[in-house]
Amino acid sequence: MENTATKKKNTKAAENKAESIKEAYIDCLLMSGHVPSSVYQFAKSLSMKEGEFYTYYNSFEAVDKEIWRGFFTDTLSSIQAESVYNEYSVREKLLAFYYTWIEMLKNNRSYVIARYKPADSYMTAIKAPQYKFLHAFKQNFLDFANELINEGKETGEIVDRLLISSRYDDGLWQQLQFVLKFWIEDDSKNFEQTDAAIEKAVNLSFDLMGRSAVDTAVDFAKFLFQRK
Amino acid sequence: MKEQSKIPTSKVQRAAHFVSTGAKIGGNYVKYYTRKALNNQVSRDTLHQDNATDIYDGLSKLKGSALKVLQMMSMDKNILPTAYSDRFQMAQYSAPPLSYPLVVKTFQKSFGESPSEIFDTFSKNAKNAASMGQVHEATLNGKRLAVKVQYPGVANSIISDLKIVRPIAMRLFNISDKELDHYLEEVESKLIEETDYALELERSIDISKQCDHVENLFFPVYYPELSSDKIITMDWIEGEHLKEFMAKNPSQEVKNKLGQALWDFYDYQVHDLKQVHADPHPGNFIMQENGQLGIIDFGCVKIIPEHFYQQYFRLIRKDLLLNEDELDQIFYELGFLIQEDTDYERKVFKAIFIEMIDLLGKPFHFDEFDFADDTYFQSIFNLSEKISNMKEVRESKAARGPKDALYINRTYFGLYNLLNALGANIETKKPLWLQSPKAQIQS
Questions:
Q1: Which of A131, B62, B208, B216 is most deeply buried (CB count within 10 A of its CB)?
Q2: Confidence class of residue B166 from pLDDT cuts 50, 70 and 90?
């Protein structure tokens, strides 16, 4: 009994330590304008042995990775805590995700801008090696997106289309990057324009993924073709 | 949702519509010059007709503030053929409904709490569209409430819409950049004002308090503690909008009662408060079977400057039309006539304005007026049709008339239309000084 208590206490302490390293890293990055030149120097500024740093993270990239993963998991747990979340349609769930996620990022806007400086073509930017730290976050998001897509197919909000529907998650990932870029460049008061952009982008994507005139037309064409 | 997906929403899409409209107009010029080369009989009128049609086609795809601006300007300048301005009339700002997560986010930004934490119940879907926002139904402590939530970024989209509208309006109304400013400044400031919910709340409370004494009129109670710059909370008002109300075949007595309340409401605002609910759209009035009229939505309020008021309403006095010198002076002061006018232009425009004033001021010249009378409305339409087809009017580069008149005309135009749709016969109350000498003797 006592043993589990201490163990819990230890994990708690470790979490706190990891958290404080994360904060110190962000602070260091933003105050100096670049990633610390070495783990040695960074650890020293925290009056910590280099070795201790590695018990929590194996590189600065791992810290970045943890920060972005944190944005995601915090967002998800926060929207799922809302009692109405379960009543939401898939479209609304995705909207709720974006709104809350952007709100989380707002508290760390300087960090996000410093770390995520997309090149002109932001679609491919993330593939570049310096964005490797985003991969875990991408995987998290894709899992979430696929969950939504499957749910949407069940409720009929999303239509299963041959060949195309397996790329829906990719589409949503592009959309997320669009939202992020839009928010980074948004100069409106309280980022109101980003809210509008999210609303419109999500509505468009669900109108595209939902049943539309094209499906009816394809169905009709198929019918005519089969009669020949 | 389905219907909304067809409305061009992004600036790019809207711009694309304008570009295609612009291209068509260019095409019409080509057509015009070709026709002219083949046949010199072709008049510029045909060109204008073609342009007006294409412009309307382009515009009809648009909703939102761009449409509102053009619609108002067309009413004022009487340029678009009546059939078009008729359809423009009272176009509402329209956007796809806000998703519920965004409503939640707006609440959290304003109050730090979500709607379900603040109210006992809160409808997930909007019940109505409102000016620049949507209305949800809520209950709190057994009270039924209407909660208006603003679309995000509405002010920005207005500014970009107005930028888009500029070149097309210059074409359409054949006026210079400077003259256009004359109108756009007024419209832009009013539209931006409409996005300020804090101001709207203040005005709603103020005007509803001041008009409280008008018979058969009632206002919702507003709740400042449940309102913010993006949210307004008020009592839910029972009753129906004009169209649904008329479908129930109300008695003439009830219709007159409602019409009278409407007239008295505007009479008191214009002549006593000197500020007026300038959006007489059917959606802003709730009618009850017992003849009670509910007023909602004070988004668009026009403050009437005293000097303008004195000049403008003097025009309605019947005897004035006979007094040539005084009339000329007012026309110049209000900018209906300008110093640069030639004698011929002066004669033409004077005749037009006198005819217009005489016709539009007609209800004021009687003690009682039957707005159900369609012949009166037909003569208004005929006149504006006639004016819009006049070469002199279309080719005049000057913006005529004071900019303050833009919203006042719109208000009266809307009021007359509502009374007509209601089929009300009413007593046209007016301030003493506006009454014709004959009426004064009688009273």
A1: B62
A2: confident
- The domain ranges of chain A are 1-58, 60-219
Using a CB-CB cut-off of 8 Å, the residues of chain B touching A200 are 9-10, 96
CB atoms within 10 A of CB B63: 19
ipTM over 0.90: no
Among B17, B29, B128, which residue's Cα sits nearest to residue B70?
B17
CATH topology of domain A60-219: Tetracycline Repressor; domain 2 (1.10.357)
Torsion from C-alpha of B289, B290, B295, B296, nearest 10 degrees? -50
Decide if B99 and A200 are in contact by the 8 Å CB cutoff: no
* Contact between residue B429 and residue B270 where contact means Cβ atoms under 8 Å apart: no
B123: how many CB neighbours lie within 10 A of its CB? 16
Query: What residue has token string 């730090």?
Result: B112
The shortest C-alpha distance from A27 to chain B (Å) reads 27
* Residue B383 to residue B393: CA distance in whole angstroms: 13
| Chain A nearest-CA residue for B10 | A200
- The pTM (predicted TM-score) of the whole model is 0.73
pLDDT, tens digit (0-9, with 9 covering 90-100), for B228-283: 989 999 999 999 888 889 889 999 999 999 999 999 999 999 999 999 988 777 77
Lookup result for tokens 């000197």:
B274
Spatial contact of A103 and B104, defined as CB atoms under 8 Å apart = no
Sequence ranges of the domains in chain B = 4-95+154-194, 239-443
Neighbours of B38 (CB within 10 A): 9
